[in-house]
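Incident log, structure service

09:12 report received: a user says their structure output differs between two submissions of the same chain.
09:20 pulled the input from the user's history:
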Amino acid sequence: MAADERPRYRLPRRKLPGFAWSALTLRPRSVSRDAQTAVACLRPPPEVLGGAHVPAKGPCLVACNHYSPPWFPSWWLTLSISAAVASQRAPGADREVHWVMAGAWTYPDSAWRRRLVTPATWWAFRRVARVYGFVTMPPMPPDPSQVEARAAAVRQTLRLARALIPVGGMVGLSPEGQAVSDAHVTEPPPGVGEFIALLVRAGLPVLPVGVHDREGPLRLSFGPVFVPEIPADRRERDCVVARQVMDAIGRQLS
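09:34 re-ran on a clean worker, output below:
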């Protein structure tokens, strides 16, 4: 595939001042509205497959692959899926996807970026999460010093899910938790399957979506909503649930 066949992933400049002001003042914004504005600027436009699988109303857990090659800024994963989901929801249904996002960018191989960029992203990402109603999770790979922060983020996500379920809201998650440069899925970190099981038991069925642009236009493929089998044995639960979800996402990339 030639590089010039891909969309140019540029945010609409006219919207950037308003977003920056919202981030500084913590004024809430609609991710579905901002996402649809941004995605409308992509040429060629994204291809959405299986859009009928998106529930017209009601709660779900949107689970996607963490597609992040060098030419694809990570925020376009959130924007493209949020826009596609919003376009399939029924009038009056909740259109917002509340994402679980990395709390910062980390740079294991760059000391100066760890000292300068990582603290800046901790600050900025918390504000983005406040503006859009997201949850920040300590980034991967796991840092032993962040065990309590990770547990607090899990509890926050569960509280959010329980508040959203009665109004038909949605939570978004990339189970892999770290960048994957090709259109395939990798094994999630330990604990992700258990985390998904908690959300499913709370009342969120899983909507799998695969994202890539390996053939030119950005392509989003949605699969059927399903409820993973959750083993009673806790020793099996993490692996079994994670594998079901990742297999469902992987089928949308084949």
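09:41 both user submissions now match this output. Likely a transient worker issue. Closing.
09:42 reviewer note: Residues 10-251 form a domain with the Glycerol-3-phosphate (1)-acyltransferase fold (CATH 3.40.1130.10). The mean pLDDT is 93.
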